[in-house]
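Objective 1b. Sequence-to-structure analysis of Purine nucleoside permease.
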Amino acid sequence: MRFLSCVVSAMLALCHISMASDTIIPRSTQPNLTDKLAPKIMIVSMASADLLQFGPEAEVWYRNLPSSGLGDLLALNISVPGLSPKYPYVHCTAEGAVCQVTTCEGEINAASTTMALVLSSKFDLRKTYFLIAGIAGVNPKHSTIGGVALARFAVQVALQYEFDAREMPRNFTVGYVPYGTKQPNSYPTIFYGTEVMEVNQALRDLAYNFAIKAQLADNDDSRAYRSRYKPAGRIWAPAAKGPSVVKCDSATSDVYYSGALLSEAFDNYTSVLTNGTGVYCMTAQEDNATLGVLLRMHIQHLVDFSRAIVMRTGSNFDRPPPGVTAYEHLLVLQQNGFAVAIENIYQAGIEIVKGILADWDKTFEAGVKPCNYVGDIWGTLGGYPDFGPGSITDGQPVSPAV
């Protein structure tokens, strides 16, 4: 969840992002591709306070990847019908091993762009790893601004009935009620199918082992805001520490929410929806939408859903520190996390990219076998989720459309 304060922070962050104008000019025109391009890795960016031509989440890759020795992401610039009008190209290294697409922010944009990408005749994505990498709001119980989280679950927390808090019953602590129920934090009885997406835990763990090699960025401004969380004691101890890589989960909502009450409510609901397994950590706008498309396209054998990685970096806290109101936290004070969150997308992400490429022949080309249930709340890809209504197909995968 990119809170509105990120927009203001982004303006300040521009002074931290050294970018000459020629670094964002495409290196080549539309290539003539006689064969489909089969990238090993597709980096999925969202945009994030789009004050630059490409959006900071993408620009950090364009600026830094050449120095990694893995190529220039602006070497090939491939137009794809159906991508965002603001981001109409998929950008790839010259040999096509690494590509990047920007969806634009929000669930509708993420789903539309991802669907257009996968259905494009210009790519073969059956063996491609999708690194969904963007900034997010962060739960001070588990991480901090600049921190990196790799998720097993993406939970659509705001897919509920909603009351204005001024009109909710007196015994309610929050104005959200799960579909088909009458009380907050009940398990829903009406499902859309996208409420919970569970990705490959074995792949997540490999990605984590790569990412912890990163030298994460930090700065004094971020440290200053973190220090406001110290009086909260042990429960928010991770907030006051420097950035690190952790394993915890992503909450999806198009609403820019902030404050202890909503954050705690969605923290609880994440636990409810995942049968107590999920750990609410990062708040974002796109993950369930992107994963929902990959799941549907897996059914058609166009992608492999078990090759999706969800990585978020904390740009702002989801709730204020002691002595600060939710309003001040969101719209007045500068949390100063945007610059380090953007930089750490690359710092952690490049380690994952390098790890996959280096071990492609031995491990990653064949795929990483999941050790957990992988899929949605319905069991669409086969198997039995230990959350939700269980498999609606008796454990069998849904057959592709003819």
